[in-house]
């Protein structure tokens, strides 16, 4: 482990510890964070994840350390379960997901825990120009393209290889023209469960033709336990003094604005729902929080930096998010409707989860002032994000 990583984790410990679809929220569901606490969580049955999809075998990989366990499937290279102890030592599954591969194939919500790409988040009007050529993408989110299109990386089979009890490696070849994107793209995602109770996600990719790339993980979290009430009473701190405001279709306007004196100021720990009903046009556009925040960095620093800290109001579970990415999308579950059956008979109630998706900014291919997402032949895309857990 390098010195920069150790330093970042030390900094994180000293602090307090989406990108939705088009569904309409249920106005009153999931507003009580005093829901009955779930019993000790257990991992899904691996047999329920053995199937054949698109001619390839699906599987569930189990990662463990002394305190934490995780379940990862090669369908969408996704997190299915992430079980961490709460402040009383009770194992708690903080990641929303399904209990079988069939539900991932057939339920309305397809992003739970998935790796999304080629381009995580939105691209305006489903098109972008690169080296003078216009590329046309599927418009699967109103007038825009979202999370790679109609069949993004979360809807394909990856080749999985479990390296040891702590690590699984998943790879995928996205062919030239897939979902409209140029270049044969070789992608590798490695999940590592560290001894410091962190789930580390390392991304790597190469291409044979210039393309755009923005990979992220779309895990929906509830630190009180998946399906266990609203996340509005979780406290959130974002290491971000600026954000990228959006238009009515959730495409950035191109401006980068200060969060000071707005409901987007999470520079000190604040309950997620404390300002969510304020009369603010940005909150109206997102039906709550669904915005990209600019991670505070010093010039030239591209290493792991603490981007966010969240604490469950019932569980005492604390999650620190560290990343090498310049942005982080905070989505507050505004489009959840309770229509998806989660593990252990739970439901995905309105604002019953949040996402913190580390990323380059939305619509960067069409926004020259944003950090570039172009990947050229001969270059290697590499980025790391860490979700570290403790209690308070």
The geometry reads as: globular
How many structurally independent domains? Answer: 1
In total, how many beta strands? 28
CATH class: Mainly Beta
Low-confidence stretches: 1-31
How large, in whole angstroms, is the Cα Rg?
19 Å
Largest sheet: 9 strands, antiparallel
Task: Briefly characterize the structure.
The protein is mainly β and 392 residues long. 6% of the residues lie in helices and 33% in strands. The protein is built from three helices and 28 strands.
How are the elements arranged and paired?
Blueprint: H1 3-13, E1 52-53, E2 56-57, E3 60-64, E4 69-73, E5 78-85, E6 91-93, H2 101-106, E7 115-116, E8 122-123, E9 127-130, E10 133-136, E11 145-146, E12 159-164, E13 167-174, E14 185-193, E15 198-207, E16 211-212, E17 216-217, E18 235-238, E19 242-244, E20 257-258, E21 270-271, H3 281-286, E22 290-294, E23 305-311, E24 317-323, E25 327-331, E26 355-359, E27 374-375, E28 381-391
Antiparallel strand pairs: 1-2, 3-4, 4-5, 5-6, 7-17, 8-11, 9-10, 12-13, 13-14, 14-15, 15-28, 16-27, 18-21, 18-23, 19-20, 19-22, 22-25, 23-24, 24-28, 25-26
